[in-house]
């Protein structure tokens, strides 16, 4: 018996870049679903899927937000696929310091795709993509036991990285004394 393994549902969105036409409907619905209150606004800058667009090269790449990192990577890759040359970072899903996507525009906190948690029909970007560039898939896998980090914790970590733990603790202490 393997005590530190557990069954986990792996959720993926398969992206067919050849089918994407850059319409950005996925960005619109994602930002609306995650607005507070839900569906109260549309702002692609708040979307957890962004379409990397280079219309002159007929390049449209839907990329959905992965993990946050405080450090930029030490190397960049470029790809040429079927004669199309893709820019650096085009396929990268990370919220990182070198670019503006996947950061909440007001707070700067990282955004991460949550597969539209709570939405019965599954990911909305998939449902709204009439070009069928996105396909949702699930599979079961046996994985190592891991501690799920909540959005709040990841957001706090990014604030600590930016301002330092002491400053954040001071702010929290000041806020708690206001009540
Ligand atoms: S909705 Fe589909 S076709 Fe439109 S930009 Fe998003 S992935 Fe591309
Ligand atoms: S699955 Fe949901 S949260 Fe993730 S990018 Fe698509 S619409 Fe946004």
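Sequence proposed for the structure above (179 residues):
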């Amino acid at each position: 018996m393997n005590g530190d393994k557990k069954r986990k549902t792996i959720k993926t969105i398969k992206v067919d870049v050849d089918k994407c036409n850059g319409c950005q409907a996925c960005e619109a619905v994602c930002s609306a679903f995650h607005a507070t209150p839900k569906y109260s606004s549309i702002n692609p800058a708040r979307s957890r899927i962004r379409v990397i667009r280079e219309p002159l090269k007929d390049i449209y790449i839907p990329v959905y937000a992965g993990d946050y990192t405080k450090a930029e990577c030490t190397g960049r890759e470029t790809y040429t696929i079927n004669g199309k040359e893709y820019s650096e970072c085009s396929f990268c899903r990370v919220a990182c310091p070198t670019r503006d996507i996947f950061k909440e525009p007001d707070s700067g906190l990282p955004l991460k795709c949550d597969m539209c948690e709570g939405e019965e029909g599954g990911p909305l970007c998939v449902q709204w993509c009439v070009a069928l560039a996105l396909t949702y898939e699930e599979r079961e896998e046996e994985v190592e036991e891991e501690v799920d980090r909540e959005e709040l914790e990841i957001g706090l970590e990014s604030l600590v990285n930016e301002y330092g733990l002491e400053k954040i603790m001071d702010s929290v202490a000041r806020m708690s004394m206001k009540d």
